[in-house]
Structures are given as C-alpha cells and as structure tokens.
Design a protein that fits this description.
The protein is mainly beta. The chain has three helices and 23 strands. The strands form six sheets. Strands 1, 2, 3, 4, 5, 7, 8 and 9 form an eight-stranded mixed beta sheet that branches. A five-stranded antiparallel beta sheet has the order 13-11-19-20-17. The termini are far apart.
C-alpha cells in the first residue's frame, strides 16, 4: 500500500511542474510523443489587423533536441504566413514560435545550416538606405515570440499579436515659410552610427537584441514641394542618436568677388552662389553627429546652406525606442532649438495646449 502512494505522489508532482515551464527558455529537452497535434490561429498587429500592406512574414518554429547536450534551440522550419497560420504534424512537446513581419525590401532569413535559432537575424539596411523615397509607408519590423507546450490529442488555437521592435523618428520642421527667410529648396538629414541588424530571438522577455558592431551612417535628401507644414519620418532600430555638434572652421577667405554673403545664427549659414559666380572659401562651419542641412534662396539669387545640430535642449539624449514614436520639433525662430516628445503609435497626434499658436 505504501508503495502505491509513493508512485501516486511522484506522478502528481511531475504533472504539477509542467505549467511552470511554459515561458522559460531553459526548458530541458523532452522526448516527443509519437502522436501529432495541430496549432493554428490568426496573426495581427497591436495597432491593426493582419500583415501590413507591402510586408511579408514568416513563422519560425524552434525546439530542443534530446540528443543535443548544449540544449540549443534547433530551428529547421520557417513557413511564410499571411493573416493566419496553421502547423500540422507537430509533436506533443515544447516549442518556441517566432512570428516576424518586415517590409518587402528586407529579406527574412532561412534557418542556417547549423539550425541555430538564436543566430537568426534581420538586416534592416535596405530600409535605412532609401527611406527618404518611401515616406508614408509602413517600414517597421513586427515580431511576436511565444513559448508553448503542445499536448497529445489536443488542437491548440491561438491568435497572435505582433508588436513593433523598431521605433520611428519624426523631424517636424513646422511651417517652412515661417521658419526660414525664403523658400526652402532642400533639406538633408545626417544620422551616423545607426544600427542595421537585429536578432529574431527575444531572450524570453520581449527584449530587442541588436547585432553588435553592425551600424551605418545614414543620409537623406528631401526637396519640399510645399512651404507649409513639413515633417520627415525615419524608421530605426532602437538606439541613442549621436548629439550633433556645429563647429567653426578657421579657413582663410578668398579675396572677395562681387557681393559676399553673411553668417548668422547658431545653426550657422554659408552662401553658395549660382553657377557662373565664384564661391567663397570652404564652408566656415562643419557638423558632426546628427544634424540637418537646410538650403534656401535669397534675394540675390544665391543659395544659403544652414547647419543645425540635432540634439535635445533638455540635455537628455534623443532615444529611439521599440514601438515608440520620437517626435523632434524644430523651432527655427529660436536659434534652431529642438523639442523632443515621445508617444505611442496608437496616438495620431501629440497633445498640445489649446492656446498653442504655431511656432511664433
């Protein structure tokens, strides 16, 4: 009789331990049951249904192999998915499932030859290279990683919601004709040291893990067709922008030829005459870090280039956070200062005071 009780309690204890392992990457390898089960459901985003237009998506399936002494996550299955998914022929055991959606210009990797799930990564470079030509498009990376036990003779139905792991930088220039003394013809944006690659894994805690040492220097050019309210949008992996610094370059000026321009403002401006005229010496100012260069004309038919450092006036670094929109407001009427605000993507507008009257 005592022997039967001992067996009963041991079995009960083993069963009670199973749920505690549901969300733990350290689950030991378990021999798969012979019976196969099915897993299916829908895929959506936190702020919208289904896979976004202009995106493609994959579902990665990873498991632990009993014969692997390192217990590394093993992935040999990556299926394209749309707004729903269905996995058949699955064994009754523990799995990690990774749902990933990216713009069509970005390649979703296939499982590597060694099937190491933790080494799967996305190269975001195609978006970073030319997003100035794709303003208004959804260029985010969406991801959802879940851990699940599949049980014998059960069909698990689960709807999955993906979240952005990229953030968005918005440079709001305000009304251009109010910010600058004449018509703006070009705005150039420079963002150095921007990360380019991110792992698909999330360490079982939703974290965004960048590939160390993979960065690029981004430059974008915009030619405003209107002098009204103007904003530029940049989708970026999580990072801290390098504060911009404007420095004066001591260079000997050339002998004056005709009318010369002037220098003014913290942003510092240099004038470039049209073709047929001789320019002055090299620009008397240079910029490092994150900055913008605005080109506008003047009454002498000359182009003026003005450099503005992108940095927060509050003394804090400008951060790009997952699933967060970072809006940087430019105020050209106050020496090129910037104001930084953070908001979620569920809000289409940043709240302002009712008495607010533009940038004046």
């Amino acid at each position: 009789m005592m022997k039967r009780k001992t067996i009963y309690f041991c079995t009960l204890a083993a069963l009670m331990m199973l749920p505690a392992c549901n969300n733990n990457d350290e689950v030991p390898a378990v021999p798969a049951e012979e019976e196969t089960v099915m897993l299916s459901g829908t895929v959506s985003r936190a702020d919208g249904p289904g896979i976004p237009a202009g995106h493609h998506a994959k579902l990665y399936v990873a498991e632990r192999k009993a014969e692997d002494p390192q217990e590394e996550l093993y992935c040999d299955k990556a299926d394209p998915i749309t707004d729903s998914y269905s996995l058949t022929g699955m064994f009754a055991q523990w799995y990690k499932l990774a749902f990933v959606s990216v713009p069509e210009s970005v390649t979703l990797p296939d499982p590597p030859s060694d099937h190491a799930f933790n080494e799967l990564k996305v190269d975001y470079s195609p978006v970073l290279e030319n997003q100035d030509e794709h303003q208004g498009e959804d260029l985010a990376i969406y991801r959802a990683n879940i851990d699940r036990w599949l049980m014998p003779d059960e069909t698990l139905e689960e709807d999955v919601t993906m979240k952005r792991i990229t953030g968005q930088l918005v440079l709001d220039m305000g009304v251009l004709e109010d910010q600058f003394p004449s018509k703006v013809s070009k705005i150039e944006v420079y963002l150095p040291g921007v990360p380019t690659q991110v792992y698909i894994r999330d360490n079982a805690d939703g974290s965004v893990n960048l590939v160390e040492g993979q960065t690029t220097n981004c430059s974008y050019t915009f030619e405003p067709l209107s002098q009204d309210e103007y904003a530029m949008y940049f989708n970026l992996l999580p990072c801290t922008l390098k504060n911009g610094v404007i420095s004066k370059v001591e260079a000997e000026p050339e002998p004056p030829v005709g009318n010369e321009g002037t220098e003014s403002g913290e942003g510092t401006e240099t004038e470039t005459p049209d073709a047929g005229s001789k320019s002055r010496a090299e620009s008397t100012y240079s910029a490092t870090g994150s900055y913008i260069k605005v080109t506008y004309g003047n009454e002498r038919n000359e182009s003026t280039e003005v450099l503005y450092a992108i940095k927060s006036t509050q003394g804090q670094p400008i951060e790009i956070k997952p699933n967060v929109k970072t809006t940087v407001y430019f105020n050209g009427m106050e020496n090129g200062e910037f104001e930084v605000r953070y908001a979620g993507f569920s809000d289409t507008q940043i709240d302002v005071e009712e008495e607010w009257n533009g940038w004046n």
